[in-house]
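Researcher: I'm preparing a figure for a lab meeting and need a structural model of a single chain. I don't have an experimental structure, so a prediction will have to do for now. The sequence is pasted below. Please return the structure as tokens so I can convert it later.
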Amino acid sequence: MTKNPLKEKLKGRKVILGSGSPRRKMFLEELGLDFEVRPKSVEEVYPDNLKAQEISAYLAELKATPFLKELESSDILITSDTVVWHNNTSLAKAIDHKEAFDMLRTMSGDWHEVITSVCFTTTQRQNMASCITKVKLKNLTDDEINFYIEKCQPFDKAGAYGIQEWIGMIGISEIQGSYNNVVGLPTHLVYETLMKL
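Model: Understood. Here is the structure written out token by token.
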């Protein structure tokens, strides 16, 4: 039986996912990886002058910081951050219904970018991989936005929506780039980077 090339490549290494995201965990499982989930919380604050990809890369690297003293030579730590970028503004996670509604209303009928940066940390070095996907939302009605927020409670997601949920089925009119990136992890880049490590 043919073996998983990535699993073979990582023999003797220990992969650690530094995230509690169920979507990122699911993607690593689907890549066929053996890994340990070890989330640590950091205050996700970044300098005001950063824009778009600079924000996600800064935060992905920041999330690796609490692990640095405990990594062993065979460990590969994966941390990542996703930013939704619209009208020169980063749309973070919404704290309540009103904030989620306002975000979706501003993006309605327009393009936005979903940017994910993934930081790979070993005791020797750090590698950063970033992916940008352009997404177009149709003109959403207030009823559609309210129904979605009440049904799916998207308060743990940047930009207050999940493309894999109801709103993705009815509201995404166009997408340029990686779909998986919008769900939470650019799996093609993760595979590529791990194969090269």
